[in-house]
Amino acid sequence: MGKKLSKNKGLSASDVQRSSQITQLQPFVIQQVYEAFMDRADKKGRMKINTFKMVYLETNPCADVYNLDMAAERTFCFVLFSCL
C-alpha cells in the first residue's frame, strides 16, 4: 500500500549513514525499517505509532525492550521526516 505513494524506491547511502548516526541503529536495520514502513503505511503514507513499534521490533529483534518506546519513537520521527 505505502509503496504506491513512495517517491523514492529506497534510501540513498548517505541517508542510511545519516540515519544510522542519528538513531544509533545499524545501517541494515535502518533500511529494513524504512522498507517495512513504506510497505505497511496506509494509502496516505501514514502509520500509527503502535503499529510502527511492532514493525520496529520485527526488523530490530535486538532492540532494548526497556527503552522500546523512546527508541521506536525516535526512529519513527526520523522515518516520517525522511518520507516527506
Explain what this protein looks like in three dimensions:
It is a single chain. By secondary structure, the protein is mainly α. The chain has one domain (7-83). It is 62% helix and 0% strand. The chain has 4 helices and no strands. Helix 1 (13-23) crosses helix 2, helix 1 packs antiparallel against helix 4 (68-83) and helix 3 (49-59) packs across helix 4 (68-83). The longest helix has 16 residues, at 68-83. The model is unreliable at 1-6 (pLDDT under 50).
In short:
With 84 residues, this protein is mostly helical.
Oligomer: single chain
Bin the helical content.
55-70%
Secondary-structure element string? HHHH
Helix count from the secondary structure assignment: 4
Question: Can you lay out the helices and strands and say which pair or pack?
Answer:
Layout: H1 13-23, H2 27-40, H3 49-59, H4 68-83
List keywords for this structure.
single chain, 84 residues, mainly alpha, globular
